[in-house]
Amino acid sequence: MSILAWTYLIVGLSFALYIGIAIWSRAGSTKEFYVAGGGVSPLANGMATAADWMSAASFISMAGLISFMGYDGSVYLMGWTGGYVLLALLLAPYLRKFGKFTVPDFVGERYYSRTARLVAVICAIFISFTYVAGQMRGVGIVFSRFLEVQIETGVIIGMIIVLFYAVLGGMKGITYTQVAQYCVLIFAYMVPAIFISILLTGNPIPQIGFGSELKEGGYLLDKLDGMLGELGFAAYTDGTKSTIDVFFITAALMVGTAGLPHVIVRFFTVPRVKDARISAGYALIFIAILYTTAPAVGAFGMYNMLNTTSNREIASLPQWVANWQKTKLIGYDDKNGDGRIQYVKDPAVNELTIDKDIMVLANPEIAQLPNWVIALVAAGGLAAALSTAAGLLLVISTSISHDLLKMSFMPDISEKQELIAARIAAAAAVVVAGYFGINPPGFVAEVVAFAFGLAAASFFPVIIMGIFSKSMNKQGAIWGMIVGLVFTIAYISYFKFINPEANKPENWLFGISPEGIGTLGMVLNFIVSFVISRMTPPPPVHIQDLIEDIRIPRGAGEAAVHH
C-alpha cells in the first residue's frame, strides 16, 4: 500500500476513535464540560495530562530543533521537563485544594477583585491563542504532506475536527480522547525511533543508541560533529548560546509550564487532592518516555539527512526530498550550476533550505522505513497537536463563559445558557486559532516558547504568591501581571515583528533573547507586586485564613492537637 493509502487508513481509524469517544462521553453539565465531573482516575488523568502537555511542539518540533541546534536545543528539554516537576510539586495540589475551575477563578477569589479576574482572563486568552496557533500550524504541516493538500487546507481540516470534539464533549470528552491520543502519539514516536536506532547502531533502545557506535564505525555524535564542522556549522555537541541566555530560556520554559492554564485545569478533574499528586507523577513518567527519546531522534534525523542530501547530485536525490518539496517546507537552488546540492552554513553559498518542523515527520522516509510507519508518525503528530489544541480551546471557552460572563458581567445566567456560551466561545476560538495557524508568527516551537514566556511573566508570580504569601494583595497582583505581561509582549514584538533585523545577541537586553525574556518579565512581576502590596492595605482576614487552609494538608491540625 502507498503512504497515502496507509495515512488515510491509520489517521481515519484514529479519528473515528476520537470522535466515537467524544460522542460517548459528551458533557451534559457545566461541571462535566469544565472539569469532566471531577471523577477521572489518576492513571487516566496522568495519560490525558501527558497528551495535553506534549503538544505539536514536543512531538513535531522539539527533535527538529535539536537536529539543527544540537546542544543548544537542550534548553527545550530541560525547561519543559523541569517545569512539569515544578507544577506537580508546587502548584497543582494547592490549586486542587482551593477547588476552582480555572486560573482566573483562582486569581479572582484569592485577590477578592473583579479587576484581577479580568486581567487574568486576558492573560489566559492571550497565552492560549499564542499556543494554539502553533498547534494548528503543526496540524497543517502534517495534513499538507500526508494528505497532499495545501497547508491552509490542512489547518481548516484540523479546525473542523477539533471543533467537533471540543465543543461537543467539553473536558469530559477531551479527557478520554486524550488518553487515546497519548497511546497513539507515544507509539508513533517510539516505533520509528527504535527502527532507526537498530538500523544505525544495532541497539533497539534509542536513548542508548544515541551514545553508541555506528554500524559503519565511529560514534554517532563524533561523526555529526565532524560532518557539521566540514560544512561550516558549529559542532553538534557545542553550544553557541551564552550561558545567561540558556539559563533565562530554560527558566522561562520551566515557570511558563507551571503557569499554563490548560495544564493546571487538568488537576481539577480527579476526585481528591491526593489523586492530583499521583496523576502528576504518572504524567511525568509518560512524558519522560518521549522526552528522553527526543535527543536521539534529533541526532538520527540530522545524520540521515546529511548523508542523503549534502553534496549529492540533484538527479540522485532520494524520493523523500521530492515528497516534501510539494509542501514548500524543503527546497533547493543550484546556485553554482554544478548539478550538486551544497548544504553549508554560509547563506550566500548554501543551496538547501529545510524547515525545522519537518524533521520528525520526515525521519521515517529519510531512513526508508515501511510506509505504515510513515503513516503512523502522521497520526501521532496529529494526536499531539489536536490533544493540546482541544485543551487550550477549552481554557479559552471557559475563560469567556465562566470567568467573563458568569462571574463578572452576567451572574444571573442559567447553567444551560453558560454551557451554550462556552460552546460558542470555543467555536469562535477555533476560527481565530485557524487564522494564526495559516499565518504563523514563527515555526511551531518558537511560537509555543513565546506562550511559555507570557505565562511565566503573568501567571506564575501571582499563583505562587497567592498560595505562599498572606500579605500579597489585589493591587500587587494586578499591577504585577500588567507590568510583567506588557514588558514581555513589548520585547518579543519589537525583536520579532517591529524590527526583526535587530534580533541579534549584541542588541538584546543583558544578552537575553526574546525566547528567554519571560524570565525577566517574571522577576519584574515579583518585584512590582511585592513593592505595591507592601504600600497598600493587606488582604482581608478571611482571605488570609483561606491561604492558611490551602497550605495545610487535611488532618494536619488534628494530629498536632493529639501530640
Automatic annotation (TrEMBL):
Membrane-spanning residues where?
6-24, 77-95, 116-134, 146-167, 179-200, 246-268, 280-303, 372-398, 419-438, 444-464, 476-495, 507-532
- How does it sit in the bilayer? Multi-pass membrane protein
Instruction: For this UniProt record, give its keywords in alphabetical order, as a comma-separated list.
Output: Membrane, Transmembrane, Transmembrane helix, Transport
Q: Where in the cell is it found?
A: Membrane
Q: Which Gene3D superfamilies match?
A: Sodium/glucose cotransporter (1.20.1730.10)
Q: Which domain of life is it from?
A: Bacteria
Q: Which InterPro entries match?
A: Na/Glc_symporter_sf, Na/solute_symporter, Na/solute_symporter_VC_2705, Sodium:Solute_Symporter
- Write down a Pfam family by its short name: SSF
Q: Where is it chiefly localized?
A: membrane
Query: Which PROSITE patterns is this protein grouped with?
Result: NA_SOLUT_SYMP_3
Protein family according to the UniProt entry:
Belongs to the sodium:solute symporter (SSF) (TC 2.A.21) family.
Supply the NCBIfam families for this chain: Na_symport_lg
Q: What is this protein called?
A: Sodium:solute symporter family protein
Query: Can you name the source organism?
Result: Pontibacter ruber
